[in-house]
Amino acid sequence: MKRAWAFLRRFASHPGALAGLIILLILLGAAIFAPSLAPFDPADNDAGPQLSAPDATYWFGVDLHGRDIFSRVLWGGRYSLAVGVATICLALVFGSGVGIFLGFIGGKIDAIGSRAIDVLLGFPAVVLAILVVVVLGVGLINVAIAVALAQVPRFARVVRSDVLVVKQLPFIEAAHSLGAGSARIMLRHLLPNIVPTLVVLGTLNLGEAILQTATLSFLGLGAQPPTSEWGAMLNDGRDYMRYAPWMMLFPGLALFLASMSVNLIGDRLSQLLDPRSLRR
Amino acid sequence: MTPRALPLVVAIATTCIACAEARAQSADLTVVWADDSNSDVTFDPRVTQSRHEEQVIIQLFDQLIYGDPTGKLYPSLATAWQAAPDNRSVTLKLRDDVTFHDGSKFDADAVKFTFDTIVDPATGSQGAVDILGPYLSSDIIGPYEIRINYKRPFPNAIDSFTDDRLSIVSPAAVKKLGNTGFAQAPVGSGPFRFVSWDKGDKVTLERNPDYKWAPGVFQDKGPSKVARYIQRYIPNAATRVAALEAGEIQFSELTPPLDMRRLGQSKNFKTMVGVAPGVPLSLMLNVSHGPLQDIKVRQAFIYAIDRPRLAQNLFFGLAKASWGPLAPTTPGYWKGVEDYYKFNRATAMQLLDEAGWKPGPDGIREKDGKTLQLYYPTLLEPDTSVAVQADLKRVGIDLKVEDVTKARQDEAILSNGYDVGAIRWVYNDAAVLQIPFTTANIPAPGKFKFNWMRWSDPKLDDVIAAAGAAASQTDRDKLYADAQKMIMDAAVFVPVHDQIQTIAYTAKLTGIAFARGNWQARLYDVRPAD
Amino acid sequence: MRYALRRIVGIVPVLFCTWTIVFAVMQIIPGDPVNLMLAGVPASETVRANERHRLGLDRPLGERYVTFLWRAAQGDFGDSYRSRQPVTRLIAEQAGATLQLAAGGLVVAVVLGLGLGLIAGLKPNSWRDTLCMTIALAGVSMPSFWIGMLLIYVFGMTLAWVPIASSGVMGLILPSITVGLFIAGGFARLVRASIIDAMAQDYVRTASAKGLTRSRVVLKHALRNAIIPPITLLGIQIAVLIGGAVVTENVFARPGLGTMLVDAVLNKDLPLVQGLVVYTTAAYVIINLIVDLLYGVIDPRVRAERLA
For B256, which of A44, A139, A239 is closest by C-beta distance? Predict the structure, then answer.
């Protein structure tokens, strides 16, 4: 408990990280308490005069269908943030699995697998995700799967290099010669060494995962009406930029703040946890 | 030179300069039209099924008869026509002074060639073959006289000749280039001739200097004042509007309603709106499974949607709500549809109660443990779907909208995995009703057709068939009115709003005219506004 | 040289793998290309059957796979199902727009990234450092479609400084900034870190002690070595850009290979997808190769290592 508290204080001593943490907590709070905080039903198309500018009643203005944008942004946090987190968890699990497998197995399979990963990294992640969505169908759940799969290559690559490093460590060989089975070695020695990397990687990629989810919804492949996911809201606002720029201003701002706060936190975490970090 | 002659000389000089100016202006008047699509594949009128391709075709080709947007007929390539009393043939006298862009002469042979090749499967006609009806053959009576024969009475024949898909093509060109080549480099007899096509970017046409056979409705029958017509493909509406305002293009089609309002108020631009005949943007209710099998649920569905408000909100007064399967500008439109299913939320809710659907905890209705959820995969008009969805939610119907890829939609349609589908169809005549409403057009695996309601009413099939073969216009109108009434009574079809073509253009030009159908525009008569 | 050749030969198995994956995936994707091509037109069964036969879609799977590989190896990717034009020509036509955007993005990324990174790295932990790094982080955190729309709104619509719909150089400004901002962010951070690393090296301190001015130290010694990791990152991201920036193309309504690929996938236009995948993979591999070779030029130690 004391160590955790000390860690938190070290973490918060960096003003950027502190700001990021506060912003993220605000966004999370807004999302979780959206049902109570939102003044209007996000799908209510009679909430206000269509395309009207922000004012005292409608803090973020009203969209084409007469829906209150502030309420929609609050509720949107639930989708954009939750899907982002789910995506990272999925990518962590699959990516680590692949990375560990390749790192351990070595040889020809590893060579081919690494090449495949390199090739996949050469594709814009968006395209990979679109491919998956075309096969699975549209919708937020499928987008989560798609973005997770698009993130797997980079997780796999990092985990694999970690495994290769750990494999060489003397105590692994010692454990091996003492008769411990491979699986055992993995679990007992490998994972603790990898966890810091995974935490850092997960946090650093969370921002991107949130943005990629929003991108797919922006392209019309993700959240379906009337879900007020932030990327989908930006797509709605596109045709009315000249007449109602608030339709795209606020959801985009929310996305930006979410991503930025997560990145600030991730940066600080990597400074504290990852010995191989390039940052000072 | 005497002093008295000076004013005269000045006057003549000034006039000459003005003339030269005017001629210079029209010598290089280039107009650029921005089109909403960029997936044109053919400009062969015999093959096309795309309203975008038709925009180019209309400038390049002439028809036998010219029909203006109100349906009035004028001689074009044909100077006179007479239908036989049994409606199984039409005799036409043709102009003798028309040449195609490649120099070959227009005559009865060209008409016969055009029609014969339309019905030939090798040509692959996707639209013209249906317009041509029960075509049998053509008899050449003289070099400029021809009789068109039909397998059965076809009272619509004369009207069909005004369709741009029955434009007359140059047989010499088709024979020389082959069908594929002709599609990429078409040759007609129209006021413009083809120059080049940069795929996905633009099509360039130039004035046909020999043109002197403009249809009777135009004052000046000579070559167009427009020297070059360029059709640029700009699929993004905002980009089109920006290009129009920047002066890069002169005409923009499918301009968004708010921009239409703004540009219309500016003195630098003018706007024009055309209501397309045919089937308005509508929803089709699948009666083969699910809650929609019950007519009360279907009626509730229609009563629940506030269509005038939807049209006003989404189109800002430019498009109106629709009430029947035909748009009001379609010949044969029955005004009686306007009395059906006027918006009434209370009636909708009452109908659902009567049908046994009671409101559940979240407001969505339930019956026998199932929720009233309807699946609606769509490609068209996401904003309309959202508005409909919101109205339905108020009465307790959960419309699950999915903006899907075309592949998904096709899959859903063929495998009957949907409850609601959307349709719209631009068509000049009430005969369009056979496309969504006949039994023969119910989709099945391997057979992609448009009766997505999967509704079969043999009596309606008979009425539509009879209307197609009816002898007189009055009979036709009466039969089509019956058909519309039957469709409305069955509550299988939810018309939502008119389809509109919204053109914004520079106020420096005038003379643009809608072609029949209020969708494509003829630019033959365009000239500088003074 | 031998090293380069070895790397080039290494491309072949990669391509083979990619092609097989593309072929397999296209079979899985739902949708019939013929139906998609005829786009909901009431075409008869005969017309559809004829099309299928013409495209060779009625042959057995194995035969199609082998034909596909054989032709691909010769550089013949056939004609696009949808537009019936040779795939190579379609790609060549659109490549220009994509490469223009990639170049514009590269310029913005390098100028902005280098600038921010240098200012931050030369005075670490100062207010300059914090400001630059915050800007860099913001660049990485902004959704590209949002920044694109904001730029259009402010500079295109409200101020009208830049045209919205031009295909010339002026029309390239806003999309380049949109695309370059993201890359600049990551690039700046790496530049800063590398500069700090390099400045701390012994030889730099020696040079300083010898009396060389600060800027000479930076330019001559630190930068040369500092630049290597950032260039790797830049290489990867530019390679990805050359594959087409789908979202930016979408927001600015620009044509490009990214949009072409997405459309081809949605239309199950196999020849076009396969051609584009080859192009993207090749571009990625070639750029990585160039970056690698650049290492050898910049850092003599690496060169020596390779010859050994």
Answer: A239
